[in-house]
Structure formats: structure tokens, C-alpha cells
């Protein structure tokens, strides 16, 4: 097996595995069978728009869940309480221009922290960004937008 890239030091606490079969038009599965998902290619990028999901939906869900956990860590650490938080991940594909064949991720998290001022919510969101492993993996180069939204629901 050939590996590219490096891993940071430290002890791995948990590891998950999923295998893709057939790319964007195929399916994925995990060895423990907890996840098995059929993919279909969205019409916007030349597919049939069938009944399956796509990698961007899975990424949006995973990033939203991880970020919401990071917000909870900040709240517990600082002794802050608020209503029921919600994080909605919005992930798209974009191209820089029509001559560029490669896709780039367009990522936004919409975060609702009811009961907090916009300033306090913004501070917590920035601190959560520093704790969330997805945010840290994406870094600043991915251009992730973190948007604090009003009310009980985001999206």
C-alpha cells in the first residue's frame, strides 16, 4: 500500500471506515453495516438526479454534527446555557470558471444558538471552529462560512 500525506502525532481515539463502489453513481458501505448508502449524481453536474444521496449531503451532515458538538464543548467549558442549538450544513460544488474541469467545495454552516446575543454566539462559534476537527482539517483555505442565524431553526 502506498500512502500519501502525513498524519500528525498522537493517539488515534476512534477510526471509521467506509468503502465506495462506483463513485458518485454507486454506493458506500461500512464493514459493520451501520451505514449503506446509494448515490446518484445530481442533474446540475450531469447526472440523472435519482433517488440516492451524494457525497456533499453526507459531508454536510457530518460537519454539522461535529461542529454542534464543538459548540457544546465550548458552552460546557464556559458554563453557558442557551436554548436548543441547531447547526445546518450546506455544501455545494463550484467551479472557478467554465474552463476549469475541477470542482471546489462551497461550505456554509448555519448556526442557531437561541438565547444568546449575536456577539456571544459569534464568539462561541469562533471558539468551536478551533475545536472542531472538520473545521481544523479544512483550515482557512476552504473558505468555510460560519453564519449565526436567528431563531430556533437554521436552514
Automatic annotation (TrEMBL):
Q: Which organism is it from?
A: Deinococcus rhizophilus
> Annotated region Disordered: where?
1-31
The record, for InterPro entries, names: KH_dom-like_a/b, OHR, OsmC/Ohr_fam, OsmC/Ohrsf
Domain of life of the source: Bacteria
Query: This protein is called what?
Result: Ohr family peroxiredoxin
Gene3D superfamilies, alphabetically?
2.20.25.10, 3.30.300.20
Name of one Pfam family that matches: OsmC
Provide the family line: Belongs to the OsmC/Ohr family.
Amino acid at each position: 500500500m502506498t500512502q500519501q500525506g502525513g498524519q500528525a502525532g498522537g493517539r488515534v481515539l476512534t477510526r471509521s471506515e467506509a468503502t465506495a463502489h462506483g463513485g458518485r453513481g454507486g454506493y458506500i458501505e461500512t464493514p459493520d453495516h451501520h451505514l449503506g448508502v446509494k448515490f446518484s449524481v445530481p442533474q446540475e453536474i450531469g447526472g440523472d438526479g435519482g433517488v440516492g444521496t451524494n457525497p456533499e449531503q453526507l459531508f454536510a451532515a457530518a460537519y454539522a454534527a461535529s461542529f454542534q458538538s464543538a459548540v457544546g464543548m465550548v458552552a460546557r467549558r464556559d458554563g453557558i446555557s442557551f436554548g436548543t442549538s441547531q447547526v445546518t450544513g450546506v455544501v455545494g460544488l463550484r467551479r472557478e470558471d467554465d474552463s476549469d474541469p475541477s470542482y471546489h467545495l462551497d461550505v456554509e454552516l448555519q448556526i442557531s444558538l437561541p438565547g444568546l446575543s449575536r456577539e456571544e454566539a459569534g464568539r462561541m462559534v469562533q471558539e468551536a471552529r478551533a475545536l472542531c476537527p472538520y473545521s481544523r482539517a479544512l483550515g482557512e483555505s476552504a473558505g468555510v462560512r460560519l453564519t449565526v442565524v436567528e431563531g430556533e431553526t437554521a436552514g
